[in-house]
Amino acid sequence: MLRKAITLFAAIFIAAGAGFISTAYAQGKTYYWISHGSPADPVWTYFLAGAKLWAEDTGNKVNTSFHNGDVPAQQEAVRAAISAGAAGIVTTSPDPGSLVQVVKEANAAKIPIINFNTPDPQAGFNAYVGGDNKTFGHNWAQYLVDKKLVKSGDFVWMPVEVPGATYGVQEEEGISSVFKPLNITWEITDSTLDQAEIITRMSDYLTANRTKIKAIIGLGDLVTGSIKRVFDQVGVKPGEIPVVGWGNSPDTTQEVLTGYVNAAQWQDPQATSYMALSMAAMAASKIPPGFNIITGALYEKDKAEIYDKILSSK
Length: 314
What we know:
Elements: E1 4-7, H1 8-18, H2 20-24, E2 30-35, H3 42-58, E3 61-66, H4 71-83, E4 88-91, H5 100-108, E5 113-116, E6 127-130, H6 133-146, E7 155-160, H7 166-179, E8 185-190, H8 195-209, E9 213-218, H9 221-224, H10 227-234, E10 243-246, H11 250-257, E11 263-266, H12 269-284, E12 291-294, E13 297-299, H13 301-312
Parallel strand pairs: 1-12, 2-3, 2-4, 4-5, 5-6, 6-12, 7-8, 7-9, 9-10, 10-11
Antiparallel strand pairs: 11-13
Helix pairs in contact: 3-12, 4-5, 6-7, 8-10, 11-13
């Protein structure tokens, strides 16, 4: 199904202007928020905060769960939500095509199911809220090329927490569209979801391959947020190796401000969860969402303080 995409702020304005807030947010209903991520990943605390705030604001209950990249567990969580008669479900996509069947089951049960954070066009979700990972990947690669930080024949290292997961696959697709025609090569390495292990693996890889790495693209928030600690451990100075990637954590906003990371991607994590649940509530009130909401902005040092303040607020 073709849907129009609108920006986050336009979505909020439209929602308020349409007056669906008072009718769609009927109190006392139970929604399910299901993530492929890890509660140990700092960015997911912000996604989770958006879901909790939505529950407080609307008086509805939101059951939340993390599945650490375990696809069968996430599939069963969606099925459990369907069996429980959820008013609506919002879920990320752990792997491309992995939720096609359970989404069909939600559709058959007439339960709205909204995709957020990581899109999967193969599945019949009612709508999507979040970033366009393919575009993000393209923009990271194009940034490095446009800024003359990489050139034909160079090698770029791309650490990721979960190899093969939707977000990294889609990001690589966008990166490939820029790098392949320029004969720029790259390698994606497994860094895991454990912070200590990430630092160890990244430090070991950088030590072994330092002379050939011309730039780094962090395909996830945990790896990009670990750049300073890895560089300091290996003895790489800020700016010595160009870095772009995700930027939804205070670690990364500080890395941009101090020159360890050149540019980072903001995805509006709290707002993404909030709007995904809002769309589920809207659909539950028989107002079909005819659009997706696309979030995100690539920021450099001059804008990093804006996001640092957002992420540091209590």
